């Protein structure tokens, strides 16, 4: 529903901020990682994860798209709610958490307050393949600059769930045979080969 809010930081604490956007003050929960990135700023852009429960509508804000992306992965795991996901991102950097999941380091994830051995194993089991498919740049924001046709096709296919290295090989063979294809044509040809 919301992608990001850009406004004046009226109040900052390690757990939440009040961000004024268009005359409205939004109470947004944040992680310590985000707090460390925005604590010296007067204005900020926070990427939002809007969580709706029976008894509450809560906004979680992140300084980077990558951190929000990882947060959304974490809360998709059974037994990890938004507060636990935020605790995980406050205990370690998003890069450390992603590395621990990809490398199957149960002990590192289990050190986080509120995460027991079974939950740590479940996090790795459910997210390891997803994060491996996305590669090392899963925490990097999607480029806003104009992409070339093959780059745009690559981004789209990775978002559809295909492994980046596999897609790159297929796209290389397609681009070699014909260079004047549209993004849609390249994607259609790639889907037949993947």
From TrEMBL:
Keywords: Cytoplasm, DNA damage, DNA recombination, DNA repair, DNA-binding. Residues 72-91, 107-126 form the Helix-hairpin-helix DNA-binding motif class domain. The keyword tRNA processing does not apply. The keyword Cytoplasm applies. Residues 151-194 are annotated as: Domain III. Coiled coil: none annotated. NCBIfam families: ruvA. The RuvA-RuvB-RuvC complex processes Holliday junction (HJ) DNA during genetic recombination and DNA repair, while the RuvA-RuvB complex plays an important role in the rescue of blocked DNA replication forks via replication fork reversal (RFR). RuvA specifically binds to HJ cruciform DNA, conferring on it an open structure. The RuvB hexamer acts as an ATP-dependent pump, pulling dsDNA into and through the RuvAB complex. HJ branch migration allows RuvC to scan DNA until it finds its consensus sequence, where it cleaves and resolves the cruciform DNA. Belongs to the RuvA family. Homotetramer. Forms an RuvA(8)-RuvB(12)-Holliday junction (HJ) complex. HJ DNA is sandwiched between 2 RuvA tetramers; dsDNA enters through RuvA and exits via RuvB. An RuvB hexamer assembles on each DNA strand where it exits the tetramer. Each RuvB hexamer is contacted by two RuvA subunits (via domain III) on 2 adjacent RuvB subunits; this complex drives branch migration. In the full resolvosome a probable DNA-RuvA(4)-RuvB(12)-RuvC(2) complex forms which resolves the HJ. This is Holliday junction branch migration complex subunit RuvA. The gene is ruvA.
